[in-house]
Amino acid sequence: MAKNLLIVESPAKAKTIEGYLGKDFLVKSSYGHIRDLVKGDDAIDTENKFQQKYEVPSDKKAIVSELKKLAKAAEMVWLASDEDREGEAISWHLFETLGLKEDNTKRIVFHEITKPAILKAIDSPRKIDYNLVNAQQARRVLDRLVGFELSPVLWRKVKPSLSAGRVQSVAVRLVVDREREINKFNAEAAYKIVAIFYTGKGKEIFKAELSKRFEEKEEASKFLKDCLNASFAINSLEKKPAKRTPSAPFTTSTLQQEASRKLGFSVARTMQVAQRLYEAGRITYMRTDSVNLSDTAIQAAEQEILKAYGEKYHKLRKYKTKSAGAQEAHEAIRPTYFSEHTIEGDASEKRLYELIWKRAIASQMSEAEFEKTVAKVGISTRSEELIASGEVMKFDGFLKVYFESIDEDQETATDNDSDNTLLPPLEKGQQLTLNEMTATERFSRPPARYTEASLVKKLEELGIGRPSTYAPTISTIQNRGYVVKEEREGKIREFTVLTLNSGEIQEAIKTEVTGAERNKMFPTDIGVLVNDFLVEHFKGIIDFNFTAKVEKEFDEIAQGNKEWTDMLEGFYIPFHSEVQDTLENAERATHERELGVDTISGKPVSVRVGRFGPLVQIGTAEDEEKPRFASLRKGQMIETITFEEAMELFKLPKKVGEYEEKEMTVAIGRFGPYIRHNSAFYSLPKGIDPLDVTQKQAIDIINEKRQKDIEKIIRVFDENPEARIENGRWGPFVRFGKQNLKIPKGTDVSAITYEDVLKWAESDPKAKTGKSAKKTTTRKTTAKTAKKK
DNA sequence: CAGTGAGCGAGCTTCCGCTTGACTT
């Protein structure tokens, strides 16, 4: 039996460290926290100094009993959880739960998993820092109190099963606020002038732009007219050097942002893939807020840069974290071995690894150097100058390996036509020939909707949430139905272009698509409803600065300057009375709007949230005739739907005639417009207005789909025509009546027998429940309650 | 992928942060 037991948080870490320490040390992992507050409402005694009741959750029992046994047998137990609030608390929980003794327990910390760092840590052990532990307890208790007092208020005043919390409610608020900013945004049009010149020598052309825009078409038109017979010359020519420096290596949040922009990963996917890379020993820990690289890593990066690119490309850089509330228990995310430019693995692992490798290597490379040229073009008939700018890269530096992309909302407002490319050789005073000049109507853009990753970025800036919770938080607000990640079709907008060409000015109307979105965060009606309720009654809690404020107090507790129970007292007393007050006095939250009166029936038209989601209603429950209902569609919200849009909803479903003695109905479902015929669904091709579908069109669509379905069939089983192998979206699968069966990996598709199909059908888990897995939530809860009994 | 939009009313829901698998899909 080993003399020393060393406990860290993560098993992958344990494995690495064991290799450094030799056989006197047994290194084990606690798998994160081993204790938590008990589940129900009596975990915290708010009357009695916030005394807590902890328990070991069932999935941690095995690990705790194993650690207990090992601790008993060891001469010395080293608690090596992370050096932050949570890590310190983990050590304390271990100390308490494993029944450790002061004189054979040591607390050590390190920021990087390298042999010298670990040996150094072992040489300088300390004791558990109870101030830090108390700060964590205050954090934990505050979050429980906020979550478990606010949520029941929502159950009573809004809808059961809803949730609220210090982090998630602010995340939702950001999305709701942004949506409202966009809704009230008025796009302003202005004319942008772009000229294309010949240099005169040869046929070289370049582009120049007017820095100001004209609000009125008349002004723009006047400008072009003035240019009709003007002469143009280079007034000034300025060249100056410019530099670009590399970004710091990745933290959790910057990795999520770049993987989203460059690879199109959701934040959850990024974390899954990163976890695999970490477990395979390819990268350092992926949940970190630190941009710091260890000295050994800096050296290794240097060596690799010298070897692969040469000395000119290297520059030693140290990065400092500036994000609020960073606890820096780990290094930045970097490859464990810089010499491995790529790795084996699946496509997503390879791509994410390369991103991490490039970013980390680039962070230790020299600046990219440019020469920026700005030429000002004078117009003989006007005082304004047109500006042409170009950029030449003189030295690529870090750009040799890495180019950081930027978010939509940080792009220059001048669209992308002013690309910084090379200008032809120019001289001051040089006369130019105008090839073409355009005045294009451009519109100002509303603030960008959040993507998952840009929402994480915003949360991090506000100091809300931690690297380990960013991805789960983004999932939670979507799972609760507060926010959806969706595509939205844009609208077609007209704009005017005036063109001066060959001595005349022409006007044209063009169209563009505006407001189209992909994978953006939209609030739902229930998200808006809950948010507005919380903002009205608990302004302090879902204030963007609430976390920052309490974090400051947690820091004071950690430094021993404040009693944690005092801090909680100060928070809880007013908070709890707000909760009581709201429960007693607040109206039930509703979000109902009267849109107008239906001209045909004379009944009122209103929108509200119903049991199955947002709906429009014509008439009221008191009427003799039952009200008519219609669900809102994707992209429509109670807050913004118009009377006309609402009335449109009642035009569908619409019967479009019969085919094969069965009715055909056109309607709109979750996946868009479709035709329903004989209990089958046929989606409408894009571009056909569901309101205009004719009987003939519908029949064509049905037959086309049938034809395609036949083409998908690979084989029908003789024993049963209901059983067949088909080509699906992800490859072949077996259709067996209403069951869709997965073909086990490695099966030879051509050799599948009917017996195989029967066997698979039997073991198909969906067959037993009868229905397809429609309501996973209800199934989960019933499973849980069944377990309890 | 539809339509549904009522009411009965026991027992349940819920937080944030630290970690992985064991589960489906």
Automatic annotation (TrEMBL):
Q: Where is the Toprim domain?
A: 3-113
Q: Which residues form the Topo IA-type catalytic domain?
A: 129-579
Decide whether keyword Isomerase is in the record: yes
Q: Which residues are annotated as site, described as Interaction with DNA?
A: 33, 139-140, 143, 155, 287, 480
Q: Which domain of life does the UniProt lineage start with?
A: Bacteria
Check the record and name the SUPFAM superfamilies matching this protein. Prokaryotic type I DNA topoisomerase (SSF56712)
Q: Where is the composition biased (Basic residues)?
A: 768-789
EC number(s) stated in the UniProt entry for this protein: 5.6.2.1
Please give the SMART domains that the UniProt record associates with this protein: TOP1Ac, TOP1Bc, TOPRIM
For region Disordered, the annotated ranges are 763-789
Record's catalysed reaction(s): ATP-independent breakage of single-stranded DNA, followed by passage and rejoining
EC supergroup of this enzyme: isomerase
Spans annotated as Interaction with DNA = 163-168
Q: Where is the active site?
A: 285
Which UniProt keywords are given for this protein, alphabetically ordered? DNA-binding, Isomerase, Magnesium, Metal-binding, Topoisomerase
Give the function comment from the record.
Releases the supercoiling and torsional tension of DNA, which is introduced during the DNA replication and transcription, by transiently cleaving and rejoining one strand of the DNA duplex. Introduces a single-strand break via transesterification at a target site in duplex DNA. The scissile phosphodiester is attacked by the catalytic tyrosine of the enzyme, resulting in the formation of a DNA-(5'-phosphotyrosyl)-enzyme intermediate and the expulsion of a 3'-OH DNA strand. The free DNA strand then undergoes passage around the unbroken strand, thus removing DNA supercoils.
What binding partners and quaternary form does the record give?
A: Monomer.
The family database entries (NCBIfam families) matched by this protein are listed as: topA_bact
What protein am I looking at?
A: DNA topoisomerase 1
Which organism is this protein's natural source?
A: Sphingobacterium pedocola
